[in-house]
């Protein structure tokens, strides 16, 4: 009887299929529709989004997605004269291979890559777990160097990449639920066990990661093609400023807080205080890293404290990469800091095309440091701070030794 019923339902589903997207089953569940289904109605946004860093935040580890060089003279990291790691390509697969006195002792494939903008780290699968490869690629040094926090004396293949990393760098990955876990334990124990189902990954940060499941929205608008007011999708304008911030801060406010729920469950309109313990109650003088924590830094700025409409989208188009010209951002500053007003710059060397280098200078990340082959000096990873303020020096990068 059950079988017959499901057959009947399947027939019904197929019969009503007018469109590819109705046929599509998303791995996340039936409320999801997949980014491909948005193109037919949101062509421009889809085309630009699918080229940006969010969409490429994680990708399969194939040659066309890799930034690093596999050419002979640039493909090695030398740990010591006897021990080196080389990049190797064989039958369309790519590997990091360790040689001891020119004999292969260990090798692992590039299965997944994270990142395209400044750096790229890779992972391999082993027994339902993902592990980080010890050598990463950095644009600042244009070459291979140790993955953040990895030893420059010995290759190490034992650092697990937990679901947590994927929850900021991908749109889905499932972990098998441990047997006998009670509802309360589920989130924590599945996150910590570190087992992941590699077939459940949805690479990159896609439309529905930011907009929430949209199957109903798609079905409605396919059925009523003349409707011009959106249905079954959260409108940005309906959110208050905290909610607008939180929809970005879920991934851009660092990783120090104790989590109560998986970031994968976040939907626009949700409050981050339901996801982290003590969120939005952080100490006012706390020092936040320039990497991955734009939200907390921005919240420390006078601009934010004194203007409750400032959020990420004031300066960033969520569908494109960060704009590079400082003039573009400076015009946004000037919208609030008019030359004629008393809140204009007091500096004699004010430059209207570049408020950024003085008020959002580059700073070194405390979380990310690395070493290049054959040079023990610590290399720093630097980004512009989002704590808009008055600084003594422009772009103040300290190049400390070790
Ligand atoms: C059959 C057509 C159709 C499809 C498919 C479709 N949309 Fe829409 N969508 C619309 C229409 C019509 C509107 C309202 C007009 C507008 O804002 O463009 C809209 C508006 C939106 C809005 C703006 C909401 C607001 O008012 O601020 C978002 C966000 C959105 N869609 C996301 C998506 C996503 C994500 C997908 C794919 C999963 C998708 N749409 C697929 C027709 C569609
Ligand atoms: C699901 C997690 C997630 C959410 C939600 C998210 N981001 Fe991101 N964002 C990332 C990750 C990860 C990167 C780094 C991607 C990379 O370079 O590989 C990134 C990169 C960026 C960049 C730099 C892109 C570039 O190439 O210049 C900007 C700007 C940005 N995000 C802004 C936003 C804004 C604004 C929002 C909210 C509308 C937002 N993000 C929401 C995870 C997220
Ligand atoms: C990083 C998060 C993020 C991703 C990824 C993302 N969006 Fe958006 N989108 C937003 C935010 C925030 C807004 C509202 C702010 C605005 O209007 O600029 C928005 C606005 C929209 C709108 C309405 C505004 C407009 O310009 O018409 C549509 C439609 C839309 N998105 C569709 C999509 C589609 C389709 C995709 C995937 C191809 C996508 N978005 C991916 C965050 C995102
Ligand atoms: C809380 C969310 C979050 C977590 C967890 C997280 N990241 Fe990121 N990651 C980001 C954001 C946001 C960026 C880009 C902006 C920045 O650097 O501030 C980024 C940038 C990166 C980049 C550089 C991307 C580029 O295009 O230059 C790499 C590589 C990376 N992360 C790897 C990892 C790995 C590996 C893990 C797990 C060990 C991890 N991340 C965990 C949010 C996160
Ligand atoms: C949405 C409006 C808004 C935007 C956009 C904005 N600010 Fe502000 N900013 C303010 C307000 C309001 C104050 C507080 C002024 C006061 O003290 O009354 C402020 C304060 C400041 C201060 C003084 C900081 C301090 O610690 O005393 C500086 C410097 C500043 N802004 C620079 C900038 C720069 C540079 C940009 C662009 C990157 C910018 N602001 C963008 C609203 C804004
Ligand atoms: C007042 C304007 C302003 C606001 C508000 C703002 N940003 Fe930015 N953001 C910038 C500027 C300027 C840059 C530097 C662009 C560059 O270096 O090319 C930047 C760069 C970034 C980058 C890329 C870092 C890198 O170097 O790759 C990320 C990620 C980012 N912002 C995320 C956010 C998030 C998330 C929010 C909200 C919490 C936010 N921004 C709010 C002005 C702003
Ligand atoms: C060469 C570096 C430099 C540039 C460029 C610059 N500023 Fe400033 N700004 C400063 C310094 C230094 C101060 C503190 C001056 C003082 O208090 O004597 C300051 C002060 C300010 C203040 C606080 C004013 C107050 O009432 O205390 C604001 C707001 C501000 N700048 C905005 C801007 C904006 C907007 C731009 C771009 C149009 C800009 N600045 C460009 C260095 C700069």
Give an account of the 3D structure.
With 402 residues, the chain is α+β, with helices and mostly antiparallel strands. It folds into 2 domains: 150 residues, no CATH class; 151 residues, no CATH class. Strands 1, 6, 7, 8, 9, 10 and 11 form a 7-stranded antiparallel beta sheet that branches. Strands 2-3-4-5 form a 4-stranded antiparallel beta sheet, with no helix packed on it. The chain binds heme C (HEC) (7 copies).
Distance between the termini: 71 Å
Structural class: alpha+beta
Question: What string gives the helices and strands in order?
Answer: HHHEEEEEEEEEEEHEHEHHHHHHHHEE
Low-confidence stretches: 1-19, 396-402
Q: What is Rg?
A: 24 Å
| Ligands bound to this protein structure | heme C
Major sheet summary line: 7 strands, antiparallel
Strand content: 15-25%
Number of individual domains: 2
Total strands: the figure is: 15
The number of helical elements comes to 13
Helix share bin: 10-25%
Outline type: globular
- Average pLDDT, to the nearest integer? 87
